[in-house]
Here is the input.
Amino acid sequence: MGHVEWTEFVLVDEVPAPGHIAHSIDSWAEPAGGGAVMAVQTARLAGGCDFFTGLGDDELGHRSLERLTALGVTVHAEWFEATRRALTHVDRDGERTITTIGPKLRPHGPLPLDGLDSVFFVAGEPEAVRSARGARFLAATAREVPTLLEAGVRLDLLVGSGNDPGEVYEGGLDVGVLVKTDGARGGAANGRRYEATPLTGPIADTYGAGDTFGATLCFALARGDDLGDALALAARESAAVLGLRGPYRGT
Here is the structure.
């Protein structure tokens, strides 16, 4: 459950400083954002994924629907006036810098989620989170802590960051497994360190690596993997994305 942004990716030598001009090497566009990336990764691992999201009832929204469907995702869209967009600069080191345009489109609840194997909450209204607690396993991102606090449900997994200010978690939720990622240094799960997977080639694009990690970890824990094995699989999947242009394999 989460948001979609129609994202234009632009390859540049470096992100322009104030007043400067960046010259693009290449560009492409497709639906992305944390919700979309997690849905596609879950579909790749599980053979399918139901994705509850918000889309604009416009050209970009319908193109997003078509593209995500082609990637194996079953999209359940709540339609809004305009699709959120984003511009992502990818520099020579593969680091991404993102500018979003328009409000995040958050699905409302209640939603028909009772009895599902797992749900990963990326964005939505509090009532949608409460619906998600009807799933056997519920994961969430620390990007949405205020919403999670308002919803007041127990989380089986919360994925945050040890270095991204937008994903820092300082407590207040009932959480089973708390993961704090730390990029190339791996991270910690309930205080236990884990290692990142060594890369076999250069970094092409960091976009989507963290969301791929979270989706994979949710999938693995929900199917019964122990925490160590689940972390190792998530680290491998995340590392594989770093060698891609964009977050989706085979595209």
